[in-house]
Sequence to fold (147 residues):
Amino acid sequence: MRLNLLPFVAALILSGCQTGTDALTTSAAPSTVSGPAASAIAGDLAGRFAEQAGSITTPIKLHTDRSDFSTALEAALKGWGFTVVTDEKADLVKDTAKPIELAYSLIVDDGQVLARLSSETLELGRAYSISADGATPSSPLSLMKRN
Fold:
């Protein structure tokens, strides 16, 4: 009887480890990443996103938080030729296809920033070293494509 109950208990405990959604995370950038560092990171990530996404005509819906990084990322994506709509303006784009949602996150730890840019089909990540002049990549680009 105990042998039959053990797999059931193990399955019950492990079922709590599953994730429930594939939704994008909300965007967040700490206030400690500002100015030249935010622009350098945004420019690099936007360029890598453009390389992987190719030329897309669908607008990009960018989750914003009014940080320096959010502003820099929006400008960098536009510089690469993407049409960018923010959360507030996304409802105004009704005559075109559904916008591609793009979220980002920055995590600061010990003078380094781990930056991530995510869409439903593509996720980019990279670590950066922060200095007074800006930011430089300190790791290779991490890339994940979803079907």
Notes: Residues 35-53 form the longest helix (19 residues). The chain has three helices and seven strands. Residues 14-25 have pLDDT under 50 and may be disordered.
